[in-house]
Amino acid sequence: MKEFRTTIQPQQSKNKLSYHTPALFLGSCFTENIGNKMQDLKFPVLVNPFGVLYNPVSVRQSLEIILDKRNFNENDLGFFNEQWFSFYHDTEFSNTDKQECLNNINTRLNAARGQFENANYLIITFGTAWVYEYLKTEKVVSNCHKIPAKEFTRYKLGVEDIFVQWAKLLNRIEDYNPDLKVIFTVSPVRHWKDGAVQNQLSKSTLILAIHQLKKIFDNVEYFPAYEIMMDDLRDYRFYADDMLHPSSVAVEYIWQFFKDTYLEKETNEISKEVQKIILAENHRPLNPNTEKHKKFLLSLKDQKEKLTNKYPFLHF
After folding, report:
1. What is the tally of structural domains in the chain?
2. Half-sphere exposure of residue 36, counting CA atoms within 13 Å on the CB side?
């Protein structure tokens, strides 16, 4: 029988992620879809220490801050709408208290620095080639923090812009950590406010730039999350209610594809054992005070101990 869809087959990567390969995830909300799944399964990963980042300039700036080993101070913050904020960070870091804002930023930054020093993998998702530049500083921002649009200029990066900036950064990263592998993806989330044509032009720009980098850097790979969503899952049943974001079913499908590409069989088997415990742990009983539930908790604790004795690198 003819199959009524175009399927994309996973291409096994020679570079494998495991419970012994720390990874740093940076980029759009799709980064969090995959990164959070790995985090839940107790892989040694850190996800978006600057919050969600959408464009290649913001991701590059974040990595440069990590490499420069600098912390943020009061001069790096702005104040608007009764909130202290950083133009390099998502709104999740904004706070009415200046010191708390700084503490949150620097705590995550120090964690990112430690993770990056030990990382085997850097996994990056670009969401859009469009950027916002703050007129007062003439710098691209990661988030506009609801400041009026008239204070920014908006423009689209070109393929060459992204390629040149990232080639310089990848050379610097290679000097810093020669063994680091970089996996690029493009977010399958469409930026519909730009319109269908401009969204496609933006995504195409990102894909072209990444493939130019892939040609000259041996440590760079491309994972086809965008293509899986656009071609393999070309049906609105795989979208959330907004018809733009992937549904949970689609995210799970792409995650399975990612596992088939980057996880060895043994690593996959360990992750399945961890997942059973996580699912049991997330179970909400009707009555937590029953003897049955108390026995269940003891059994769960015993399962965790057995698994961590078998695999000492796991941390629940």
Report:
1. 1
2. 12
- Distance between CA atoms of 57 and 138, rounded to whole angstroms? 13
10-residue averages of pLDDT along the chain (316 residues): 76 93 94 93 97 97 96 96 97 97 98 96 97 97 97 97 98 94 95 90 97 97 95 90 91 95 94 92 81 86 92 90
DSSP 228-264: IIIIIT-SGGGB-TTSSSBPHHHHHHHHHHHHHHHB-
Distance CA 213, CA 171 (A): 11
As a whole number of angstroms, the distance between CA 260 and CA 13 comes to: 9
DSSP, res 158: P
* Residue at 60 is within a domain: yes
Which residue range is the domain that position 184 belongs to?
Answer: 23-264
The alpha carbon dihedral of 195, 197, 200, 202 has a sign of negative
- Exposed (0-12), middle (13-18) or buried (19+): which is 35, by Cβ within 10 Å? buried
CATH of the domain at 38: 3.40.50.1110
Cα dihedral: 124, 129, 134, 137 (round 10): 70
Name the DSSP class of 199. H
Residue 196 within a domain: yes
Helix, strand or coil, per DSSP, at residue 185? strand
- 15 part of a folded domain: no
Burial group, residue 9, by CB count within 10 angstroms (0-12, 13-18, 19+): exposed
Task: With beta carbons less than 8 A apart as the criterion, state whether 140 and 61 touch.
Answer: yes
Neighbour-count burial of 175, counting CB atoms closer than 10 A to its CB (0-12 exposed, 13-18 middle, 19+ buried): exposed
* Cα dihedral across residues 130, 180, 266, 264: positive or negative: positive
Q: CB neighbours of 276 closer than 8 A, spacing ≥ 6?
A: 303
